[in-house]
Amino acid sequence: xxxxxxxxxxxxxxxxxxxxxxxxxxxxxxxxxxxxxxxxxxxxxxxxxxxxxxxxxxxxxxxxxxxxxxxxxx
Length: 74
Hints:
Largest sheet: none
Number of helices: 4
Oligomer: single chain
Order of helices and strands: HHHH
Helix content: over 70%
Radius of gyration: 13 Å
């Protein structure tokens, strides 16, 4: 959570860009109401990717495709 909060501050100061990494990309995303993703949801998404990647590459790819599919469905 500390890293997410620190990166949000950097993003707001224009010291980080969405193309920099996944964390900054998630911080830059807004929903249909113009609201940013809460820090806790960002942390959960990042932890999910880390644990999936630890288990196997196929788990990580499955999670990424699922997230992309949800994004395209909106």
